[in-house]
Amino acid sequence: MVYLEVNLSNFRDFDPEIILAHLAELGFESFSESDCTLQGYIREDMYNASEVNAYLQQMNVEHGIGYALQKIPAQNWNELWESAYEPITVAGKCQVRAPFHLPVAGIQYDIVIEPKMSFGTGHHETTSLMLELMMLENLKGKRVLDIGCGTGILAILAVKMLAASVVAIDNDEWAFNNACDNVISNRAGEVKVIQGEASAIPQPEYDLIAANINRNVLLNDIPVYAACLKPSGVLLMSGFYEQDLGQIRMVAELAGLQYVSHKSANNWVGAKFIK
Predict the structure, then answer these.
(1) Which one is predicted more confidently, 13 or 36?
(2) pLDDT surpasses 50 at 232
(3) What 3 state SS string does the chain have?
(4) Tens digits of residue pLDDT in 29-48
(5) How many other C-beta atoms lie within 10 A of the C-beta of residue 13?
């Protein structure tokens, strides 16, 4: 699998969050920021050259933002992740670390994630927001679905929170394989990992569904998630910005869900809904 990296510079007084939001709509999966540069990453097979180039050229002409595009081979990407990967702690209760890090004493949930290319190591705000929201729930004996599971991190947390059964689904083969490996590493055999779309969700109803995907997928699939929830079941969602919350709420409410609350970090949102 090959990823493309777009490197943007010369922001001047332009708000980079606007660019982040637009690139996310174009299929970019993750971002990294430094003082005056922004890197966005997209799978090569998801890259629409005409759309992306048209937008970047517009930003260059209107705002003087420079850009460069390069291919990032999977092997080099993984080496970069491993060299820069640091363990994180979420809400003082959950540590996410690589196999080459030692566990920290006093942590309630210790999750080991191999730092490969799959989204969901906890370092991105959306993943840490979802971890935080999940830890506020009582999952003991519950049936949980992690849709768009990436590394499987949320499904693994559900097992550590004593969920009775957990299903993890991702349409990406690399993520599927990575999630399977991480389930084994964490001795989370209760997790059933499936490669597929929302249509692959097993039919029994769920007590909690965690969906950390991009805005467009959420807007399309919220009715499917709602139909798979038990009455009073919880839907946790992230992968979108604060300015998108209104549209997410509208679609969720039309699907029979009630907005409860949300958390935000750097303009990213994690939201809770109940059926």
Answers:
(1) 36
(2) yes
(3) CEEEEEEEECCCCCCHHHHHHHHHHCCCCEEEECCCEEEEEEEHHHCCHHHHHHHHHHHHHHHCCEEEEEEEEHHHHHHHHHHHCCCEEECCCEEEECCCCCCCCCCCEEEECCCCCCCCCCCCHHHHHHHHHHCCCCCCCCEEEEECCCCCHHHHHHHHCCCCEEEEEECCHHHHHHHHHHHHHCCCCCEEEEECCHHHCCCCCEEEEEEECCHHHHHHHHHHHHHHEEEEEEEEEEEEEHHHHHHHHHHHHHCCCEEEEEEEECCEEEEEEEC
(4) 777 766 577 888 888 888 99
(5) 5
C-beta atoms surrounding 75 within 10 Å: 9
Task: List the domains of the chain with CATH numbers.
Answer: 2-79 (3.30.70.260), 125-274 (3.40.50.150)
pTM score: 0.73
CA 149 distance to own-chain centroid:
7
Considering only CA atoms, which of 261, 257, 254, 255 is closest in space to residue 238? Answer: 261
- The residue among 44, 34, 109, 51 whose CA lies nearest residue 72 is 44
180/105 Cα distance (integer angstroms): 26
- Read off the tokens for 218: 């959420």
In whole angstroms, what is the distance from residue 39 CA to residue 33 CA? 6
Phi, psi (degrees; rounded to nearest 5) at 4: -110, 140
In the structure, what pLDDT confidence band is assigned to residue 120 with cuts at 50, 70 and 90? low
- Dihedral sign for Cα 123, 125, 130, 133, please: positive
The single residue listed with the structure tokens 């990213």 is 268
CA–CA separation, 152 and 118 (whole Å): 9
**Calculated CA dihedral for residues 14, 16, 17, 20, nearest 10 degrees:** 130
Scanning the structure block, which residue is given the tokens 């979802």? 130
